[in-house]
Amino acid sequence: MIPMVYTVYGFAVFFLVAWVCLWLIHIMALSYSKWKLYRTVDRSPPELPYPGVSILKPLTGVDPNLESNLETFFTLDYPTYELLFCVEDERDEAVKVVNGLLHKYPEVEARLFVGGSRVGVNPKINNMQPAYLSARHPLVLVSDSGIRMREDALLDMVQQMQSREDVGIVHQMPFACDAEGFAALYEKVYFGTTQARLYLSADFLGINCHVGMSSLVRRVALDEVGGIAAFGEYLAEDYFMAKALVERGWRLRVASLPALQNCGTRSVGGMQARLARWARLRIAMLPATALLEPLSECLPLGAGAAWAAGVLLSAEPLPFFLVHVLAWFLLDWLLLRTVQNGSLPFTKVQFLVGWVWSEACAPLVLATALLRPEIEWRTRSYRLEWGGRAHELKPKLKF
Length: 399
Ligand SMILES: *[C@@H]1O[C@H](CO)[C@@H](O)[C@H](O)[C@H]1NC(C)=O
Hints:
By secondary structure, the protein is α/β, with parallel strands linked by helices. The chain folds into two domains: 19-34 and 275-391, no CATH class; 51-266, Spore Coat Polysaccharide Biosynthesis Protein SpsA, Chain A (Alpha-Beta Complex). It is built from 13 helices and 13 strands. The strands form three sheets. It has a seven-stranded mixed sheet with strand order 3-2-1-4-8-6-9, sandwiched between helices. Strands 5-10-7 form a three-stranded mixed sheet. β11 (375-377) and β12 form a beta hairpin. α11 runs antiparallel to α12. The mean pLDDT is 92. It binds 2-acetamido-2-deoxy-beta-D-glucopyranose. The site of 2-acetamido-2-deoxy-beta-D-glucopyranose (NAG) has 4 residues, from loops.
């Protein structure tokens, strides 16, 4: 029997080590963000012409921002590209929006693919498969429907791709457009702090953190592993795609401009449901997540470390905890400022409210994910098997 006191000391040491690691992660993410993000795009004429890009846009339904989001793809500052819009159902309202834009920009090469192709359970892959097979260019950009692009964003991604011959994927770090309302504040604070910290430090350490909402892929690399269809059996197709490419020696790169999500139906509940869905995917793929993730969050880690500091260093737990929270908050503010590269659309007080909300919700989101493991995505639900393969619980679509 190990005496009780050693167990207590063991836990205390564990918490303090985790706590020190998290501060290192903060500093790593902040320094890396300053070096990595918003590098100015090189406008000088390239030695070789830029390669063409086929942009895949999987769409389902219409939200108030869809048209203006899609329009940003018609006005990209990039010499050669084609837009391949994909809808599964010909009655989808998005068809009208796309046709309107095709009419407005006849000079932009663009096509609409209707019907999808059932290659697996992942609805996004099924939707994109026909367009992927018809894509004409050596680079493919997979871009979710709610993404907006700055004019220079594609050029930035291609320049990162061209920086080395063995770069297989260039992905934009998830972030959010400026918008009104509390849900937009929550979204920006979450993606610009918690998510950015883990994303940037994972990339710095060479850990696969690929999120496929806006991701440029080298076609030869993807075709080596069977194209997008090879990932149709996963819901986290982005993670497995990046894993397969890395295993074959390709590199991942984070673009210097973050992905601007601009869904037209933001809501706090929707945001939490999405975070819970992502947490379910992570837990199914890597069960240790459920134990380790609370240790990367400000409040649970701070509570554990304050207790540990009391046990080991006879510190006063409450002041320790408060200083911890304050320092974390300030570093998050600095990181968010870098990820935004400019002034934020809210005041410091609003940031404080959004930040407290985001941090307080994080443990609850994780708990929801643990208690209800089914994954709901749009109108369907799925269950994940060990290792990440998915099956649909109540298939609603006939093919
Ligand atoms: C980032 O912000 C700085 C200062 O406002 C600006 O000069 C620079 O052009 C911005 N970078 C990008 C890539 O937008």
